[in-house]
Amino acid sequence: MNMTVKKGDNVVVIAGKDKGKTGKVLEVFPEENRVLVDGVNIVTKHKKARNQNEKSGVVKKSAPINASNVMIICPSCGKATRVYHKEIDGKKVRACKCGVSLDKAYVKATKKDAKKTKVEPAAVEAKSTKTTKKAENSAKKVEKTVKNSEKTTKTAPKAEKASGTKSTTQKSKSSKKEA
Question: How far apart, in Å, do the first and last CA atoms of the chain sit?
Fold first, then answer.
């Protein structure tokens, strides 16, 4: 069976009782589709002394988990990623979605390729349109807040009437009635 996880990879557990834990892959069992991750799936074993020199007791150790329950952490972007394969120098290499190779022998080659793809002028134009859209959206938000503040200032005198305080016109009418 072809596995995308190899010994020495840093992985994060995405399912099971240890979900969210990270660790280094200590051993891979491709026939069983399982991996042994340091500090994950800790089980207790009761050990019996077989001769006078041995001690009996409870031993805690890591047990293998299914390989589908882990995702590789990319060394460059630091995120858990699905592995895809690409060809570098005629070899099939594991890579992250950010473009960097996960195999140590090809990391330098893929970093150079990633830098080259970042400088494309089309990407720069796309970024500039995104920034102008953001500026337009923020200007619209400012206009909305100004309109809302104007509405609240217009409704403020109505609030005074409702609170029980008399306005100047009401005071003058009541003073005329008394006289």
Answer: 103
Sign of torsion over alpha carbons 28, 34, 37, 42: negative
Q: Which two tokens stand for residue 18?
A: 């240890």
Provide the CATH number for the domain formed by 1-45+59-73 in this structure: 2.30.30.30
User: Tell me, what amino acid is at 126?
Assistant: A
* pLDDT tens-digit readout, 95-130: 888 878 888 766 665 566 666 655 444 444 444 455
**Taking the CB of residue 152, how many other CB atoms lie within 10 A of it?**
10
Each domain of the chain, given as residue ranges in start order, spans 1-45+59-73, 83-128
The helix (H) or strand (E) run that includes residue 129 is helix 121-163
Look at residues 111, 30, 40, 109 and name the one whose alpha carbon lies nearest to residue 75: 111
What is d(CA 71, CA 31) in angstroms, rounded to the nearest whole number?
19
Does residue 110 contact residue 100 with C-beta atoms inside 8 Å? yes
Q: Is the pTM of this model over 0.85?
A: no
